[in-house]
Amino acid sequence: NAGVMQNPRHLVRRRGQEARLRCSPMKGHSHVYWYRQLPEEGLKFMVYLQKENIIDESGMPKERFSAEFPKEGPSILRIQQVVRGDSAAYFCASSPPRTPPTNEKLFFGSGTQLSVL
Amino acid sequence: AQKITQTQPGMFVQEKEAVTLDCTYDTSDPSYGLFWYKQPSSGEMIFLIYQGSYDQQNATEGRYSLNFQKARKSANLVISASQLGDSAMYFCAMPTGANSKLTFGKGITLSVRP
Predict the structure, then answer these.
(1) Which chain B residues touch A89 with a CB distance below 8 Å?
(2) Which 3-state string (H, E, C) describes A25-73?
(3) Contact A111 B107 (CB under 8 A)
(4) Pick from B111, B34, B33: which is nearest to B77 by CA?
(5) DSSP-derived secondary structure letter, A102
(6) Strands A107-108 and B3-5
(7) pLDDT for the residue numbered B56
(8) What is the DSSP string of B12-57?
(9) Which residue of A lies nearest to B34 if distances are taken between CA atoms?
(10) How far apart are CA A115 and CA A18, in angstroms?
(11) Residues B65-103 pLDDT 10s
């Protein structure tokens, strides 16, 4: 049973380009979380999605960042017109469906290291 | 809002010795939980252990155990019989709100010496 798959592992972009980060959750998981980790910092929550729905985007910057989790295919975190400050590790985590949400551990991917030149 | 504090500087421990990594928290929720994750130099986040606030006994997972003291709002991770592979960053985290999103501390670097 494959874990959470993120690709690419490393992504280099020049200022002004677009970055697309992909996340395939574990099999059977329908909840996806995106986190960002700046150097020497802990992970910061960005967005929580279920299939075709954004549930909580309270941690997303207001501009240039968007996320989706379509009915088919991986979840995508998209950063338009990247700037140097976007350089960070971006982690995806998934959990199985549960109602109501519980204190269930999240399964993390290996992250995508974004470097903006 | 939840807050997690990890203030220890880089920690060093001799191989085969035990080490305690500190974590204090602040929350107004009557029911909560605490996670510890390990992040080796390769970057992935590895779940280690979880403690719920109403659990009667401190959690244990192999060489990892939680020294959970609710009155002091601390949830320290104890690693027994340290191994070289334990060298990593260690993060304490707490679920926030109804959606289980995690609030992380800044982490502690542990280096195990041979």
Answers:
(1) 43
(2) CCCCCCEEEEEEECCCCCEEEEEEEECCEEEECCCCCCCCEEEECCCCC
(3) no
(4) B34
(5) -
(6) unpaired
(7) 84
(8) EEETT--EEE--EEE---SS-EEEEEEE-TT---EEEEEEETT-SS
(9) A103
(10) 12
(11) 999 999 999 999 999 999 999 999 999 999 887 777 899
Separation CA A24–CA A86 (nearest Å) = 22
Q: How far is B105 from chain A (nearest CA, A)?
A: 6
Residue A26 in this model has a pLDDT that exceeds 60: yes
What is the rounded distance in angstroms from the CA atom of residue B14 to the CA atom of residue B112?
6
pLDDT above 70 covers a percentage of chain A that reads 92
- Looking at residue B70, the DSSP 8-state letter turns out to be T
Task: Compute the nearest-CA separation of A89 from chain B (Å).
Answer: 9
pLDDT, one tens digit per residue, over A62-115 is 999 999 999 999 999 999 999 999 999 999 999 887 654 455 678 899 999 999
- Collapsing DSSP to helix, strand or coil, B1 comes out as coil
